[in-house]
Amino acid sequence: KGVEAVVVTERDEPQAVIGSSLHEDAFPANYRRHVRDNRVLGEGVRHGTERASSLQLRGEYLYVADGPNGLRILDVAQVDQKGFSERIVDAPVSPLDQRLFVRTRDARSVASPTTLGVDPTRSQLPENREQKIHPLYAYLYVADAEEGLVLAGAATLLDGNPRNNVMERALAFNPDGLLKGATFVTVAGRFAYVGCDAGLVVVDLDQPTAPRVVATLGDLRGVRGVAVQFRYAFVACESGLAAVDVTPEADGSFPAAPRVVSAIPLDDARGVYVARTYAYVAAGRQGLAIVDVTRPEHMSLARLFDGDGALDDVNDVKVGITNTSLFAYVADGRNGLRVLQLTTPGRDAQVLGFSPPPDPRLIATWKTAAPALSISRGLDRDRAVDEAGNQLSVFNRVGARPFTFAEMQRLYRLPDGRLFFVR
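Now predict its structure.
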């Protein structure tokens, strides 16, 4: 029934997450008040929609998959500006000169290839040895249950000119109805992963206005979420969490025979977020499932966490670090937003290192006006190249650049092209 922006940290430095261990140390009076109020967060901003089943924030805009209204784009630049009476708006300049929506029949999911402000029209400086920004970054991708995969031009929102903010549909892609029932889409490298009635369908976006299907994994039914990390796609589906080997061929194409290499059975997997060596699965009535994916071909369930029964309708989860601690933000259906502290300095013995084992505890709640369905992914800090070797950002030294695809392949292929493994 709408979107809600919720204040989850203190405004003063250190910007502690409310209810966290740092909050207790740095703002003891505020922390005691938070605990006294049953750890309920105190401030949020709401904007009505039809059915906001998927969200993605990028810069000052929030992309919303809004069911029969299609793709809606909300301006949230003033969401924390108390001088504005309406802090989330549809058309901040004029509805006569802007069109921040694209009509589709039944939009269920929206994906931005990156949360960075990547502008494919920006000119490159030769001394930086930059690669051209791939044209797929000029679009937003919408999974529509009736139309399949819908592409909408997004570059107009990245050029700094508010007078041309007129969104246009680029195309709808649904060859022979293959993408019917599309309810989820994410983009990794040059490929879109679409969950639909046919299972998991992979679409090559190397030429975004001429997409083509490169794989269909029909055994993965009821796909609700996909997270791609390095050589593997982790898929939340009706049978649980599956790890799929999607190692690209030497020429960058999708593997001819992608395969499920391991699986963790779960009763009600609804979404997944992967951070380093752990996958966090929104597991519906089971709460949050934490899966060790250090060895994707031998995944193991680290733990199920439901906060002693408090989390029982988990639809989505996103993970981020604030002030050295790891947090999970959970869309817990009828229970609203939940904030979990996953690592706690001074409490967890193994809190240091590249990927310490998470030990979640529920630290804050926000009761949404309607069931919480989706959480926006955070800013991809320091991400300079995607899974296909496409450059996303510029380093701050002349001549600096990220790896190319060929250089990335040296991390996992021998000189003769064969994959190498560490057992």
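The radius of gyration is 21 Å.
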